[in-house]
Specification:
This protein is α/β, with parallel strands linked by helices and 307 residues long. Helix content is 34%, strand content 17%.
């Protein structure tokens, strides 16, 4: 099933609308095709993925996690597949929040076809996204590539029910390579339906029983204008490397601060939410003012100096 091409927007790397998180991975797409709200890609995101042939337990967990994260101002990212993915999208919509569906085909090609109504709902509050141009069919080899985008857009990836050779584990591996957090929901030990997720837990993935576990792992105040963990500019390694009013791209900041891009981008997002810097044209960042203390008093100002 095809959607009309109206409102499909190509966003290239370097464009202000290109998501910072995705730009930080080693192999970001040169172009994203977006249908819906492009600004949804600039919000803090968590991916929820799992089995296409999911148990009722997994469907309910995915829906509940999606709804609870949405209520806390976090955008839910997934692949709109049958099972856990679609349950997570629907949960986010039920929670009144935004959700992003990353396609393994053109954003005008609905796959699976029965999710046409869901796709329309996602466009209203979130976005359909693909690196593939409109009209591209959902071929099998497209889907492993799109998984790196699901994880690349996200601060963390939550696995809800995955067998040992599940495609969700590809997303988990992408997340680990990108420096993202990987979390997993425990499930039934019988039948092997969730042995892939259990293996992740044995290997050190954070165990998730509720959205609180995810928030705790992210470890900063989503949706708050000011961050409790924000240091004065003279102490923050990122702000200290930035001269006020000068634009810097991700690679330049990573070199100056000594942080790799995967570790740097969550900090940039936190600083942006706190009002300490902003993104400008070309996907660059400018320090334009000093963050305030939680008491509302400003820190003494001084020009930033290179590390």
């Amino acid at each position: 099933m095809y959607l009309p091409l109206v409102d499909v927007t190509p966003v290239c790397r370097g464009d202000l609308r290109y998501p910072t998180a995705l730009a930080a991975i080693d192999d970001p797409p040169e172009t994203l095709w977006i249908r819906g709200r492009a600004d949804a890609l600039q919000t803090p995101c968590v991916a929820i993925v799992g089995s296409r042939v999911a148990s009722p337990y997994a469907l309910e967990v995915a829906r509940q996690l999606g709804a609870d994260l949405a209520r806390r101002g976090i955008t839910v990212t997934s692949g709109m597949a049958r099972g856990v993915d679609s349950a997570a999208h629907r949960g986010a919509l039920d929670g009144g929040g935004a959700t992003i569906a990353v396609f393994g085909c053109g954003v005008d090609v609905i796959y699976p076809r029965e999710h046409a109504g869901l796709a329309e709902q996602i466009c209203e509050k979130g976005a359909l996204v693909s690196e593939l141009p409109p009209g591209t069919l959902p071929l099998k080899y497209h889907f492993p590539n799109r998984n790196r985008i699901i994880s690349g857009l996200s601060l963390a990836v939550v696995i809800v029910e995955a067998a040992d050779k599940s495609g969700s584990l590809i997303t988990a591996n992408c997340a680990l390579r990108q420096g993202r957090d990987v979390l997993a929901v425990p499930g039934n030990i019988l039948g092997g339906r969730n042995c892939g997720a259990h293996r992740l837990l044995r290997d050190g993935a954070k165990l998730v029983e509720s959205a609180n576990d995810i928030i705790e792992e992210l470890n900063f105040g989503i949706g708050q204008k000011e961050s409790k963990g924000l240091k004065p500019a003279s102490q923050d390694p990122v702000l200290r490397c930035m001269t006020e009013g000068e634009p810097y791209d991700l690679d330049e900041l990573a070199d100056r601060c000594g942080l790799d891009r995967a570790r740097l981008f969550p900090r940039l997002l936190e600083l942006e939410l706190a009002g300490a810097l902003r993104r400008v044209t070309g996907g660059r960042f400018v320090r334009f003012g000093l963050p305030r203390r939680s008491s509302g008093r400003s820190e003494p100002g001084s020009k930033g100096r290179p590390c």
